[in-house]
Specification:
The protein has a single domain, classed as Rossmann fold. Helix content is 33%, strand content 16%. A six-stranded parallel beta sheet has the order 2-1-3-4-5-6, sandwiched between helices. The longest helix has 12 residues.
Amino acid sequence: MKKRIFIIHGWEGYPEEGWRHWLKNELEKRGFNVFIPAMPDTKFPKMNAWLTYLTKIVEIPDKDCYFVGHSLGCITILRYLETLKESQKIGGAVLVAGFTSDLGYEELESFFTKSIEWKKIQSHCNNFIAIHSDNDPYVSLHYGDFFKERLNAEVVVQHNMKHFTDDYGIRELPIVLNSILKISK
């Protein structure tokens, strides 16, 4: 069975934006099955709707299942991992510009109404890489430290990549490709 990669965009994102389509093409060239779901109501995202949709798309998670999240996509992946059955494990996750609070935005509050269950997340995945930019206008570098502390994530800091979006001209992101290749060996 081929390894599956699910690329989850962030708030107001969409599958074709930025580096996601480039990453999909690069991974497919290497034999992966890649999915970039268009998450529901991206302007006013709600955690339950996003989790329900992601669960439907993934169907049965397993050790050949990997995730790449950008921004709000990262907490979506972590919340998804909290919902898995005790015996279910995934291969790994790459978290790009991820965060663990609503960053002061009312639109993101539904993702943070309860505490993050770090131990439960780790019971379903023990292979995380967190990628951050040293000049992200929205997500502070301290979130990388948080992922390292709570998930034992490898943290990679990129220089001058802002929020890793098309708005900043980011249309390819080799560090994400290399990270997925590394954790999926």
